What we know:
Shape: globular
Largest sheet: none
Strand content: under 5%
Radius of gyration: 15 Å
Bound molecules: zinc ion
Helix content: over 70%
Amino acid sequence: MEARPYITCRELIDFLYLYLEGELAPSRAAEFERHLGVCKSCVNYIETYKKAIVLGKHAFQDSEAPASACAPDELVRAVRDSWKKSKL
Ligand SMILES: [Zn+2]
């Protein structure tokens, strides 16, 4: 059994962009995957995030709408919440 604590959901979300870009250090990426193995809400969050990126790319090909008009409200709120929490 692993004795080390899992990273928190907040840490995961803070580094999500780097993780998805493949720019996270291998040891950090391993911690991400360990957390995702036990945390379904983060798995769901990442799925939503990936879909939003795909939708965003499509939108940019078709129009010049600002990014905020393309992102699902739920995701925008989740990202704002994580910013707010990280400033506390
Ligand atoms: Zn989590």
